[in-house]
Amino acid sequence: MKIAFKNFLTTLRRYKASSLLNVAGLTMAFTAFYVIMVQVWWELGYNRSIPDAERIYLVAPSDFWDTDGSTFTSQSPRPSCERLVERSPEIEAGGPLRAWFNTQPAWVMRNGDYVRMKLKVITASTGFIETMRATAAAGDLTDFVRPNTLLLARSEAERMGVGVGDAVWLADNPFRAAEVRPDRQYEVVGIYDDFPANSGLAEIEAMVDIGDDGMNEPNTWNDTFFVRLREGTDPAAIARRWSEINAEVQAAWAAKMRPLWIEQYGQEEIDSWDNDDDQTGCRLMPLSELYFERALESSHWNPGSRPTTLSLLAVALLVVAIALINFVNFFFALTPARLRTVNIFKVFGAPTASLRFSFLFEAAGFVLVSLLLSWYVASALRSTLLAEYISTSLALTDNLDVLLLETGVALAAALAAGIYPAWYITSFNPALAAKGSFAGSRGGRRLRTTLVAVQYVVSIVLIVFTFFCYAQHRFERRFDLGFEREQVLTFDAPRKIAAQPQSYEALVSRLAADPRIEGVTASQSPFVSDASTVWGRKWKGEEVDVHVRMVRPNFPEVMRIPMLEGGLRPEHGRDSIYHAIVPRSVADRFDFRPGEIVDNYISIAGISGDLQFRPLQYETKPLMMIADNKATRIVYLRIAPGSDIEDVCDGIRRAIGEVDPDNKAPDIRFMNEQIDDLYEKENRLMTVIALFALLAVVIALMGVFGLVLFETQYRRREIAVRKVMGATTDEILAMFNRRYVVITLVCFAVAAPAAWWGVERWLSGFAYRVPVSPWIFLAALAAVLAVTVATVTLRSLSAARSNPADAVKSE
Question: DSSP secondary-structure letter at 223?
């Protein structure tokens, strides 16, 4: 061991440049591996830290709009799910929650005064609490079934300074102006330990009891229902049972509603509905897999993308692989110089096993030094912009599992990278080194070519993937949503303006005085959003989930939504019935025409062009834009081109201050920025992938540089002879470049199918995606060729210009 350690230090001192180059490459690779694996580990463990997560399932009925049974919804009718629990002894526990994670005003009493705070309150049942095995930190979690009681997460109780028995006042409507009301006083009866941070339940800060709400409404799909199955239960069998129970519940409800439907729609229409006897399909989706479940139509429960996560994992492994190739190159580049040393040790009786152990120890030493340096760099990255792109902490103490995994990978890498060179050097015939023929041996050339080829294949794959990441991001930003979103500013209306239409009108009148503001409108929720109000309807015999946007009557005009027929008028927002705009695809499917009455209280006012109102990960669904003068929560303003945006925003803030002086000025943004937020997670991960893909390419080029250095060092005599025979500098450079250009082309032929497969897998996570264009592959090839020619030329130039006599003398 002492000799091995001494040899390691000798190598560091004797080959400083090569040692530093390899340590730098390995440090960068291990740092990238750690950062990426922190994100990957977080995503792969999402929801899994909830007790018995592998036995907890979401009841996910088929999405009505889906025609082939490939997509499902997280919302289900409560009566069918509760009966499923009653009739299934295989279910240990089950219960619903209303998964609307909205922050609302809340008050606590401090020194005789009400202190206003914010709180995310969801409605749930004791069955849900039992299913998730929530643990009590204080009080009794089943006590919240009593009226006007609530449960608080431990972190929120500490933040608000309340405990069991204290009072909290909740707003009656999270979207309206809120004041403390005595009838909204709730007693804290239980405090539960926070749900894991990397779970879909982490946002639950408080819970109130759902009671019997929805128990008698089988056609209201408002509940997210979870069940915990006993060991060995077949989830598919439980899903089939749900379909049968739901069919019974819906049939009983339809029989009850039939007289009213006949009165509304006529006997003939109702008889046509009777022919539709298909059961609603259902899947039980494991909680542990919901993060990547793309068949689920829910932005909250399935926020991840498996292709993106696997792409991150692939980049992490490839970065390490490229660095290890450089490490192997380092060992083999030193082979001729070290063969004499090995031969001397053999002559003095050193056993081959001892020499090989020395080389393996040397490899492990380089890897461990690089690993320790990478942990130092990773710790420093916590305070950089890169940390914002990772979903969790980069602190080493918070990621012990990742550290253990990385240490194992590093030691395995050291063994893999060192064992063959150690065997090769110690078994090599020293006579070959004495003749100086190692560089020209067939085995040496084959090994070097293989190493270069692997690096080129990986580099091309990563460059292609990075280019497609950029292309998809550009595609998202430029995608035609069906309306003009440029020059549109938006902000959340302050309390008074959102609660009082007359205050909104006062604001509009002030804004209208600014000639740079071409129009003002509003909606009750963000128009382009991954969350929606969804109404379950039965239109002309077909069950449909309709996404609803409550908007001001002038919304289509201000947003420049093209109208094909009809349109909204100012009085439509005040009528006793709803007036709605539907896109062309919905009108064609259900044969809707302007003036037609739907559901006995919705009048089709017009037909617009098709609109994309959800992120591009999701396909377009049926949409209704319903006129409502009370829709004032999200304000949109169209600004004239060329306007001074900062000056316009200052004017908007002044106008808001005149109407509602008690509230701080809102955050005014471009609508495009708001839409970009919908792709924040994908964009963050794509940035990480692109950054570390670039790092991998840099490490690969370091290896190529080293190999070219090796080639020029051991072909000096050949270069001298060629120059004596009349070869020019350009011809010498062409000789070196020709080999690497051929290698690049061959590697491109290998890398292109692999890159195509990876890109297709990643793009499969988007319902709307950029086409897989061959031009991107050709651009990647051109980039690699350009960098290769530049690297080889720069490194070979000194050898090509050298004096042949100097090369002969040195030989």
Answer: B
Distance between CA 343 and CA 427 in Å, rounded? 10
Does residue 445 lie in a domain region? no
Sequence letter at residue 210: I
CA 296 → CA 282, 293, 389, 748, distances in Å? Answer: 11, 6, 25, 38
Query: Which of 261-265, 289-293, 315-319, 479-483 has the least mean pLDDT?
Result: 261-265
Report how far apart the first and last C-alpha atoms of the chain are (Å, whole number): 37
Domain-ending residue, one of 404, 438, 472: 438
Confirm whether 342 is domain-assigned.
yes
The pTM is what?
0.74
Closest CA to 792 of 683, 677, 693, 715: 715
Provide the β-strand partners of residue 110.
113
CB contact at 8 A, 294 and 765: yes
Place of tokens 């011809």: 731
Beta strand ranges found along 255-395 (DSSP E): 282-286, 296-297
Q: Are 720 and 808 in contact (CB under 8 A)?
A: yes
Which H or E element spans position 245? helix 235-265
User: 542-564 pLDDT, tens per residue?
Assistant: 777 788 899 999 999 999 999 99
Taking Cα atoms as reference points, which of 602, 557, 554, 608 lies closest to residue 580? 602
- Rounded to whole angstroms, the Cα distance separating 55 from 329 reads 49
Report the distance separating Cα 333 and Cα 671, nearest Å. 57
pLDDT in tens, 128-165: 999 999 999 999 999 999 999 999 999 999 999 999 99
d(CA 643, CA 655): 18
Measure CA 239 to chain center.
Answer: 29
Buried b (16+ CB within 10 A) or exposed e, 80-91: bbbbbbeebebb
Using DSSP, how many helices (H) and how many strands (E) does the chain show? 24, 24
User: Which residues lie across from 96 on neighbouring strands?
Assistant: 225
Q: What is the pLDDT of residues 645-662, one digit of tens each?
A: 899 999 999 999 888 887
Q: How would you classify the pairing of strands 542-551 and 533-539?
A: antiparallel
Enclosing domain of residue 265? 53-93+230-297
3-state SS, one letter per residue, for 159-171: HHCCCCCCEEEEC
70 and 180 housed in the same domain: no
* Residues 220, 224, 225, 231, Cα dihedral to 10°: 150
Q: How many domains does the chain have?
A: 5
How are beta strands 56-61 and 282-286 bridged, if at all?
Answer: antiparallel
Considering 644, 677, 710, which residue would you say is the last residue of a domain? 677
Three-state SS at 181: coil
